[in-house]
Design goal:
Elements lengths: L1 H7 L5 E2 L3 H4 L4 E3 H8 L8 E7 L17 E6 L4 E6 L3 E6 L11 E6 L4 E6 L4 E7 L4 E7 L12 E6 L3 E6 L4 E6 L4 E6 L7 E4 L12 E6 L4 E5 L5 E6 L10 E6 L5 E5 L4 E5 L5 E5 L14 E5 L4 E5 L3 E7 L3 E7 L2 E2 L5 E7 L3 E8 L5 E10 L3 E7 L12 E11 L9 E9 L2
Parallel strand pairs: 27-33
Antiparallel strand pairs: 1-25, 2-25, 3-4, 4-5, 5-6, 7-8, 8-9, 9-10, 11-12, 12-13, 13-14, 15-16, 16-17, 17-18, 19-20, 20-21, 21-22, 23-24, 24-25, 26-28, 28-31, 29-30, 29-32, 32-33
């Protein structure tokens, strides 16, 4: 039974990129980093992660490199920042002991396409600005000091950067502060209980399907998620009592192309997926060190253009593409009479292009439906009028109903989710 369960475990809300894209390296472990750097790197202090396509590294003559991202991770235990240099090597910024460019427990970071890296320097109560030149990081300037006044911090935790603004969770002052890209204070949003995780998006983002500016905050001992407008109006809120978990520990949040909200949970060793209203959609992952498993996941980042997802936990960094998952919830009636309709109920985790195929007992195609793109997540229904492709009622016998789901981006053309059910016609 244990072997059977291992074989059946294959969630597809996220999928690994094909071999041709990664050469099989979709998971960076301790041994991989040791080979790349020659140092015994550990993941215990790695938390913040951010990825982007750097403009000056893009070859405008081809689209072939558009999905080659630069990923940055912060290591607060070693006061370091790690990043990849193209597809060939790994770079490291090791903080000096003193000076403006020194870091003391960097807890999070955000890279922009212009190559600007914003780093939360937690113990120095500031945000440090670096410039990436393709090989190295160079310190430019910073903003923030310890205090309770506007523009000051008391234990800043995470950062999120939009086209116009910089959002920072100010843990000790129970607020989120918002700055412009020059580090000048714009406004603060109060009313949080020790906020930690953060994700912000702008309606001007070209890779956001539904133009909406909002930010998401994790607070209340990492058990509550709140979605707010830029002026601080609460749009929706969720706490652990809504979920079927006795305990949660939300760590970080990210927003995908459709505005869906992804949150890491280090207590339950998984990701949680919510819709734009913070209604629960699905859980992804389980405890472990194998494929599609996590051990205390903390950071998550999503490159929305292609739906590329990176998740860091205590043992590895995993690289995913957006997929789609679905399962049959029920069929009514399971045994039908000629010309009697059949309703198939299914659950869908992400927008997908849907095709329904119906076969008879000889595996001959009886009917095909090109449904198009379904964007309504969660419970969905499909009604078959029990007619064949010629518009005639089907005869007695068993019929297999196949539902095919193709992702709308990222893994489109590389992956399909297929689910099946059976019905029977009797006179």
């Amino acid at each position: 039974m244990i072997i059977l369960l291992l074989i059946l475990y294959d969630p597809t809300t996220l999928v690994y990129p094909p071999f041709s894209h990664t050469l099989g390296y979709h998971k960076g472990t301790l041994s991989h980093l040791r080979l790349a750097t020659g140092k015994a790197i550990k993941f215990e202090g790695v938390g913040g992660i951010s990825a982007a396509k750097i403009d000056f590294l893009d070859d405008p003559k081809t689209l072939g490199d558009d999905d080659e991202l630069t990923i940055f991770v912060t290591d607060f235990m070693r006061n370091s920042i790690f990043y990849n240099i193209g597809l060939r090597s790994l770079g490291m910024y090791k903080s000096p002991v003193i000076g403006d460019s020194s870091l003391w427990m960097p807890s999070d970071c955000e890279i922009t396409p212009e190559g600007v890296l914003w780093v939360v320097d937690r113990m120095r109560n500031r945000v440090a600005k670096f410039l990436f030149d393709g090989e190295n990081l160079r310190f430019l300037e910073d903003f923030g000091h310890f205090g309770i006044l506007q523009g000051y911090f008391d234990d800043p935790r995470q950062i999120s950067v939009t086209n116009e603004e910089i959002y920072v969770t100010d843990y000790g002052n129970n607020r989120v502060q918002i700055f412009n890209h020059h580090g000048e204070f714009l406004k603060e949003v109060k009313g949080f209980d020790h906020p930690t995780g953060l994700a912000a998006v702008s309606s001007r983002d070209p890779w956001l399907r539904y133009p909406e500016s909002f930010f998401v905050v994790i607070d209340y001992q990492k058990s509550r998620i709140t979605k707010l407008s830029p002026d601080g109006k609460i749009l929706s809120r969720l706490d652990k009592n809504v979920l079927n978990y006795p305990e949660v520990k939300f760590e970080s949040a990210a927003v995908d192309y459709y505005g869906l909200i992804w949150v890491t949970d280090s207590y339950n060793n998984c990701l949680h997926l919510f819709d734009r209203d913070l209604d629960y959609i699905a859980k992804y992952g389980r405890m472990g060190t194998g494929d599609k498993e996590f051990l205390y996941p903390t950071g998550i980042t999503i490159w929305r253009r292609y739906g590329q997802v990176f998740v860091v936990d205590s043992k590895s960094i995993q690289y995913f593409w957006m997929g789609v998952d679905a399962w049959i919830r029920g069929v009514e009636p399971g045994i039908f009479k000629p010309e009697e309709g059949v309703t198939i109920s299914y659950y869908l985790t992400q927008p997908a292009r849907v095709i329904v195929k119906i076969y008879n007992s000889k595996e001959e195609l009886v009917r095909k439906f090109n449904i198009g793109v379904i964007k309504d997540l969660g419970h969905n229904y499909f009604l078959w009028d029990t007619l064949d492709k010629e518009g005639k009622p089907v005869g007695e016998g068993k019929y297999k109903i196949e539902l095919v789901f193709e992702p709308t981006y990222s893994s489109k053309g590389k992956f399909e989710k297929r689910i099946f059910t059976e019905v029977q016609c009797r006179q």
